[in-house]
Amino acid sequence: MTNKKNTGSYYTPSYLAEFISKRVLSNFENRTRMSILEPSVGDGAFILELEKESDININLTALDINDVELKTASKKWSKKTASFIKTDFLEYSSSRQYSAIIGNPPYVKKNILTSKQIQLSREIHLSEKLTEASVKNIWATFLVKANKLLSKNGVLAFVLPSELLQVKFAEEVREYLKKEFERIEIFTFNDLMFECKGQDTIVLFAYKKSDFKGEFFANITSKESLKNNDFILKNNELLVSSKIKWTHHFLSSDELTFINNLKKELKTVNDYTVSRPGIVTAANKFFIIDKETEKKYNLSKYTKPIIQKGLFVNGSVVFNDENLKELEKDNRPTRLLQLNDNDKISKKLREYLKLGELEEVPNRYKCRIRNNWYVIPNVSESPEAFFFKRSHLYPKLLKNNSGAFVTDSAYKIDIRNGFDLNSFIYSFYNTLTLLLTELDGRYYGGGVLELIPSEFKKLPIPYFEIEQNQFENFTIDFENKSNIEQILNQNDFNILNSTLGMDYDNLKKLTEIRNKLKKKRLREYANA
Asked: Could you say which DSSP state residue 345 is in?
């Protein structure tokens, strides 16, 4: 999907514009006239398709903030009944109620919006009794405002990021849609047929009135299946009546009930541990250096060991001094430049700080608000363990035997009184918990799984006490594994039968559900 980064525009491929336009127009096939609004017309992909309609007289209103794009789009419309208006949709006002609103809203995070756009977004959301917390990205505001401009029998059709289905702030937007529309259709896609800001994109159809009410989901496996209408829209009543993320519409009500019943029996990560974000340096490339740089500028008395990213840790459940030395041998940046306000600045240190000034590191927001731009706050004791918030094949939780710190790519973990860290790490690696990371986390284009702090803290753990020698054997097995499934097959019964009384049939069912979720995220599942 081609894009214009400065406006957050991600233009729509023609096959998708054709599918959306035809599906919207089919809802009005008994009409001779209708009005359509496109709030961010872009390069005119939808206009090109709507222009082909011969049976319905379409009165088109097309908006865009970009004058050049607007003129390009207008040349694709040969009929008289159209208005092309250069404006920001947030500022657009009209007494007209439209039969349909169609388009691909821009993707712009709140921190990139102008102060005026943020204020307008707040007003639009508050007017619909939505909280300010729902103002996180402009696409959500487009959705809310579009609804206000629809007629009582209107249809809304938007290309949207998959955030709608999974992130916390969109939960409020999902509830809003369920309240405002009698029928909702969500189309997800098996392949990265198009991508928005590094994450999957979905298509939403929302109908103000419908004889067939409810929330329906379909997963599209190819362009051909979309073109030939070769898909089945399924209704999952449990999914939409609960606050489970819509991403997992392909799980059955029975599977969701099965998982929820197990979750109820367990305490969470937060019951067993204290977890906090890792260190925010504001400029990892400057503040995290390799041994060569440390030696060149005589910085050893100012540095501490640190793990910069999950990619640098091995496939074990323990990170020790030897692992740190291996990273140093590979010239990985493993030394955190940790200065204090009262440190005496040596000549060589001053030389290195000058490099940062040339790179304009002091001008970065988080450096700018410090007393001294080079003094990183909140560097306390190194954690007992760390959990990397982003992962690929499986999440990484490691015991820290190296004394190393960790960046905010991970959460610092310390065990609560009365519990054993070895047992907690051992208990984490079971099929149910890893399944729940898939279910409760969110994923992005390329299959990256992420758990934000609240999702990690709420993760249920079937805690099972083990002895030191058992953990040592577990560590050896983990290091020698071919894949994570070997560890799960080996330990699942021990953990889940002891804590939840699960038998082999239920363990098999759990494994099948996890595989379905994981394969969907990694795009290995042709008919998920």
From this structure: -
Exposure string of 161-178, with b = 16+ CB inside 10 Å and e = fewer, is: bbbbbbbeebbebbebbe
Rounded CA gap, 140 and 150, in Å? 16
3-class state of residue 93 by DSSP: coil
> Given a cut of 50, is residue 5 above it in pLDDT?
no
Tokens of 453: 């702090």
The string of pLDDT tens digits covering residues 205-238 is 999 999 999 888 888 877 888 888 888 787 765 5
Please tell me the distance from the alpha carbon of residue 241 to that of residue 517, in angstroms, as a whole number.
20
- Taking phi first (over 0 means left), then psi (-120 to 50 degrees means alpha), and beta for anything else, what does residue 521 get? alpha
What count of other Cβ atoms lies within 10 Å of the Cβ of residue 486?
13
pLDDT of 7 higher than 70: no
Judge whether 327 and 362 are in contact, CB under 8 Å: no
pLDDT tens digits, one per residue of 319-349: 999 999 999 999 999 999 999 988 889 999 9
Residue 384 is given by DSSP the state: S
Is residue 287 scored above 70 in pLDDT? Answer: yes
CA angle, 103 then 92 then 18, to 5°: 15
The helix/strand/coil state of 34 is strand
3-state SS of 135-162?
CCEHHHHHHHHHHHCEEEEEEEEEEEEC
